[in-house]
Design brief:
Blueprint lengths: L1 H19 L4 H6 L4 H11 L2 H38 L2 E2 L32 E2 L10
Antiparallel strand pairs: 1-2
């Protein structure tokens, strides 16, 4: 039975895996062997029932690794968006450090009175100063 299982895994790795379009989450997260490499090794090292149990545990761990990778991707995306938002400038020319909100609510002295201080979304280049100060 173990030899048949190893042959099936070999066939999967050779013909199906290259076409599925994604990699083993456990391998990516832990920089380790893929699930099928691990399970194939278990079939070569253990009896059939032990290898099946190891496969179940590994697929469960792989599902958890997939969830971890998704959370990491969302976290990176949020950090990237926050970094982009923090590059906005307020109406009076002062760069807001942690957010894109205007630091000073009174922008009546602004050279550009059409700007709405509550929703400034000006490009924050180092030389930009909307109030001319």
């Amino acid at each position: 039975m173990n030899k048949i299982a190893v042959a099936l895994i070999d066939g999967y790795q050779q013909y199906i895996s290259p076409r599925k379009g994604f990699s083993c989450a456990h391998r990516i997260l832990y920089n380790d062997e893929s699930c099928y490499q691990y399970i194939k090794r278990m079939f070569m090292e253990q009896d059939f029932s032990g290898a099946i149990q190891a496969a179940r545990q590994r697929f469960k761990a792989c599902k958890e690794a997939n969830q971890t990778l998704k959370l990491q991707a969302v976290s990176r995306e949020k950090k990237s968006k926050k970094k982009q938002d923090s590059k906005l400038i307020n109406c009076c020319g002062d760069v807001a450090e942690e957010s894109c909100e205007c630091a000073l609510p009174d922008c009546n002295n602004c050279d550009f009175p059409e700007l709405d201080c509550g929703s400034c979304e000006l490009d924050c280049s180092p030389n930009f100063d909307c109030c001319g100060s």
